[in-house]
Amino acid sequence: MEFAPLDHVVYPTHGVGQVIKIEEQEISGMSLTLYVVDFAHEKMTLRVPVKQAKNVGMRALSSPKKMKSALDTLKGRARIKRTMWSRRAQEYEAKINSGDPIQIAEVVRDLHRSEDQPDQSYSERQIYEAACPASLPSLSKSKRKRQPKRFRSSLKSPDFCDLGTCFQARK
Is pTM, for the whole model, over 0.70? Predict the structure, then answer.
């Protein structure tokens, strides 16, 4: 997948960034073509080799159709497998690292606890908190503008996750 300057992209570990430019650099005697991606919310610039962009999981923003499917997944019932927690934790981490909004929504849905349910373990909470900000940046800019103000404000904070707010905003 090719990106052009000013394109918005999603990088799995950093969220949404903007390709500022494409540059040539010589590293260890080899000439590399790099995407220069700016992540304003993290005040960070990242250089990604063009040939490695797909391998590291860099992708275009999700379409509104895909995000609707992810939000529908969030509204569904939790599907928790009856396997050892360590195995499920590995599966959840793989889903988060995939960058796919639907898979991330599955993790958030499965690990979300309402007030009447028992507390999460430390590792469940860590994975849940990692999945929440990972799911939020994929919302397209047009989708963000149509959301109620309290939902939009949650999108600005990279470590905020309150499914109750998300669900109330969708009703």
Answer: no
* Segment holding 9, helix H or strand E: strand 8-11
| DSSP secondary structure letter of residue 120 | P
34-83 pLDDT, tens per residue? Answer: 999 999 888 999 999 999 998 888 888 888 898 889 889 988 888 888 88
Provide the pLDDT confidence category of residue 33 given band limits of 50, 70 and 90: very high
Report the side by side order of strands in the sheet with 44-49: 44-49, 30-39, 15-27, 8-11, 59-60
Query: Cα separations (Å) of 117 from 111, 114, 120, 126, 135?
Result: 11, 6, 9, 17, 23
Q: Which residue in 76, 92, 95 sits closest to 84, CA to CA?
A: 92
- CA–chain centroid gap for 75, Å, is 18
Angle between helices 122-135 and 85-98 (to 10 degrees): 20
